[in-house]
Amino acid sequence: MKTKAPTLRQFLDQFPTEDACLEHLMRIRFGDRHDCSKCGRSAHFYRVKARKVYSCEYCGNQVAPMAETPFERTRTPLRDWFHVMFLFSTTRNGVAAKEVQRQLGVTYKTAWRMCHEIRKYMGEVDGDAPMGGPGKHVEIDETFIGGFRSPKSVVLGMVERGGDVMTHVVPNQRRATLTPIIDANVIPGGAVHTDELRS
Q1: Backbone angles phi, psi at 156, to 5 degrees
Q2: pTM of the model as a whole
């Protein structure tokens, strides 16, 4: 079933303050409880007053939810970042830096950087990382896709069982075409399952 995108009102209700955005980021990245890297215990981490870090309930070890994210070392409020991410997730035709500049009242340079960092991160998350490897199973097949009046395209599909899916439009079904794509995207050591196509 297709999930309905949130409305602007729902977004504003969910993230009314800077603290709400930071709390959401903390729970999305680390969960309500996680193993502390210092004491090794499964702990709840509490917000340190007036700082953007959380502290282990047992040993006081601190984690920073903004570290190693596009928000690290930024002076732009998290709420503005969340607003731009909302625009990216609800706009069909992309988000222009000029529109972000207009909506947030920031400089064009800041708006461009925000859009650039979000696009870069989306590419890392949704990009085609290699699949397979020892103990993994990858299923590979190809199909023809096309309409009644247009020529059909060959699409190569690869899926790791219980994992990611990857597709490539390829010019043909020949071994010389398919094998290099498979070699570049499937880590050796696992099992590859295909049909009886000779290539």
Answers
A1: -95, 125
A2: 0.64
